[in-house]
Design a protein that fits this description.
Blueprint: E1 7-13, E2 23-28, E3 36-46, H1 48-55, E4 65-66, E5 70-78, E6 90-94, E7 105-109, E8 113-115, H2 122-142, E9 150-153, H3 159-170, E10 174-179, H4 182-190, E11 195-198, H5 203-210, E12 216-221, H6 228-234, E13 235-243, E14 265-267, H7 278-293, E15 301-306, H8 310-318, E16 325-329
Helix pairs in contact: 2-3, 2-7, 5-6
Length: 330
């Protein structure tokens, strides 16, 4: 391995705001603490959670804050206490403060790092990791989806949406997809959606017609405020309503009595809780990578930007005009 530089490029914020607050800075290369490896990042994933920390919807633990919640790359150094990953191992990881992915190097707890199989590219690993683990654990654990159940995916042409559709197809669910344009609905159809509903139409009445009045057994909603009231109307008896995003704004406080009429299970899950132990992380990551390698899930990359253009990536993501994953190339 070549000698490590003293400084690196990273995208940081020193205050909350729009994409313009993203700064392309020179910062020190991280030093390793016990249990950590140093990863030279190849690709970093761009996710809605990044925009939440940037805007202040989620409070930053410290300022300045280096951005980014996932990346792929190779291990270039390891603390003496770590023997699991040899230098040169290709890896993927989800980051959390103080670690971050919008940087040339990241110090990561070895327990949070997984090796990338030879059959998977570094681009695919970065594109699938956080959103793929999110979608797969939400289907398996939050939604407890069974073959033949009615499911609905909002924003089904987005990064998480396209993964949810493909994964729900792999478990044998009946899939209703919503999206805002015919082009996006066609994409959802390509990935396996059985029924298509334009989100500008009367979703509730169309879903009632599609399901024969049964309603939806599991709703996956990354849109938030704009769709939540409709979700409560569309959910089936004993249905699972998984609200996991705020693309249209945060869901207002909920009167818990609204859930009683149908015995609704309302959840606001976070993927980290499903992969917090090493056995769960390895199990779900292995299942996820197998879905990609076996071609049951296609990784769609919308665009790859240079690190310095992270602000444009955020603008494009928040425009809701993208289909698939946005990556930064380090």
């Amino acid at each position: 391995m070549a000698p490590l530089p003293a400084t690196m490029k990273a995208i940081q914020i020193s205050k909350n705001g729009g994409p313009e607050v993203l700064e392309y800075n020179d910062v020190p290369v991280p030093t390793l603490a016990a249990g950590q490896v140093l990863v030279k990042n190849h690709f970093a994933g761009v996710n809605y959670i990044d925009t939440y920390f940037r805007s202040g919807l989620y409070p930053a633990p410290t300022l300045p804050l280096t951005m980014g919640r996932e990346a792929s790359g190779e291990v270039v150094a390891a603390h003496d206490s770590v023997s699991r990953f040899a230098p040169g191992t290709r890896v993927a990881y989800m980051a959390g403060a103080p670690s971050a992915g919008y940087a040339e190097y990241t110090a990561v707890n070895a327990d949070s790092v997984v090796a990338i199989p030879d059959a998977l590219s570094s681009e695919e690993a970065a594109a699938i990791y956080l959103q793929g683990l999110t979608a797969w654990t939400f289907i398996r654990e939050a939604g407890e989806v069974k073959p033949g159940q009615w499911t609905l995916v909002h924003a089904a042409a987005g990064g998480v949406g396209t993964l949810l559709v493909q994964m729900l197809r792999s478990v044998g669910a009946k899939i209703i997809a919503t999206a805002s344009t015919d082009e996006k609905l066609a994409l959802a159809k390509k990935y396996g959606a059985d029924y298509l509903v334009n989100s500008n139409d009367d979703i509730v009445s169309k879903v009632k017609e599609i399901t024969g009045g049964h309603g939806v057994d599991a709703i996956f909603d990354g849109v938030g405020k704009a769709t939540f009231d409709a979700d409560l109307q569309m959910i089936a008896l004993k249905g699972h309503l998984i609200s996991f995003g705020n693309a249209s704004g945060a869901v207002p406080p909920v009167n818990i009595l609204q859930l009683g009429a149908k015995n609704v299970k309302l959840m606001r899950p976070v993927v980290n809780g499903y992969v917090s132990t090493r056995p769960d992380l390895e199990r779900y990551t292995s299942e996820l990578f197998d879905l990609v390698i076996s071609k049951k899930v296609e990784v769609k990359i919308h665009n790859i930007y240079p690190l310095k253009d992270a602000a444009q990536a955020h603008i494009d993501l928040e425009s809701r005009k993208t289909t698939g994953k946005l990556l930064l190339k380090l």
